[in-house]
Amino acid sequence: MLDNLIEDRDFAKIMQKNIESLIILLFEKDQNFGILCKIEQITFEPELPSEISAEFRPMTLFFLAGYTFDTASIVGDKLVFEAGFGSDNFGSIVSVPLLSIMQIIVDETPLLINLSSYKKQSEKVVKKVDDGGVENSMASFLSNPENSKFFKK
Q: How far apart are CA 105 and CA 101, in angstroms?
């Protein structure tokens, strides 16, 4: 039952709207916050050097404060902000899909936990049935005298 709910598209839409609404409220209140998110769904522009990106775990915490907080905004269905990484403070624009945010944290306390695990369905490939192939197969079967034992008399 729970799996059906958390994998449901409508549930995901509600979670996305809640994530967006809470982030907007935090922006309006000028409240710094952290996001715990799935790193594989995040994009960096420019791409981070491999020695920096190799340090990320599958679930990574970003803390939005100072310059990073000031540059943050919601663009479409993503949270976008600029951040510096590594000892050289390598600058990159980070784009985080809202549904990849698993927690929103203030003062080490989760304000929101995203339980949604909905994945957009890729376009289904519809295979055409070759009716001619079935007919040809039947004709081959019927033309073989050895197969006559399979027919009702």
A: 11
The tens digit of pLDDT for each residue in 61-99 reads 999 999 999 999 999 999 999 999 999 999 999 999 999
DSSP element (H, E) containing 3:
helix 2-6
The angle subtended at Cα 56 by Cα 5 and Cα 46, nearest 5°, is 100
Q: DSSP 3-state assignment of 141? A: helix
Contact 39, 58 (CB under 8 A): yes
CA pseudo-torsion sign 142, 147, 152, 153: positive
Residue type, 35: I
Q: Are the CB atoms for 53 and 90 separated by under 8 Å?
A: no
d(CA 15, CA 105): 16
Contact 94, 82 (CB under 8 A): yes
